[in-house]
Write a structure and sequence with these properties.
The complex is a heterodimer of chains A (114) and B (112). Helix content of chain A is 0%, strand content 50%. Chain A is mainly β and 114 residues long. Classes of the chains: A mainly beta (114), B mainly beta (112).
Chain lengths: 114, 112
Amino acid sequence: AAGVIQSPRHLIKEKRETATLKCYPIPRHDTVYWYQQGPGQDPQFLISFYEKMQSDKGSIPDRFSAQQFSDYHSELNMSSLELGDSALYFCASSFGRISYNEQFFGPGTRLTVL
Amino acid sequence: AQSVAQPEDQVNVAEGNPLTVKCTYSVSGNPYLFWYVQYPNRGLQFLLKYITGDNLVKGSYGFEAEFNKSQTSFHLKKPSALVSDSALYFCAVRDRDDKIIFGKGTRLHILP
């Protein structure tokens, strides 16, 4: 079965550079969530989209922005990167904003900021 | 605010023995509870969920979890542990805005 696809899988950037992470949800899933997992930490919610509109916002820095496109894929744009942005970034998708539908997670993008 | 707590950073179990990974929750309203597993350098995989109904929920890879309302717990269990079960396990709750709030995680070591 198709899963959530994230690209790239690994990304190395330098401080103050920009990065764009992409997420392709499971077909027919209309809701996308972004999470950040720092080293040795639990995943923290960043932002979510439902039907191309932002639906919820968590601990996402102002330097980051995201959007969901007409084909439901989502991109997380990160600017002025800092060392502390080094983390594993997960995208998850689900069908509809129904609380009991499980979110399916992608493999993550490991961002390293040097 | 919704939250889950995993009191153990690490659990060690001998292969073949039963395992339990503990989780307690604090929610307002009906709890939507989940367990996810994370293998090294891998994403989060869904194991099981409790929405309503039977308190004993069966999931993937032989895992099950027992929802206990009076103790506000949702412990993950497996009757006989395998070495391949060694991983990081996250208990999670889905809040009203649908985002998942994770516990701190419990690292499970299954000893051969």
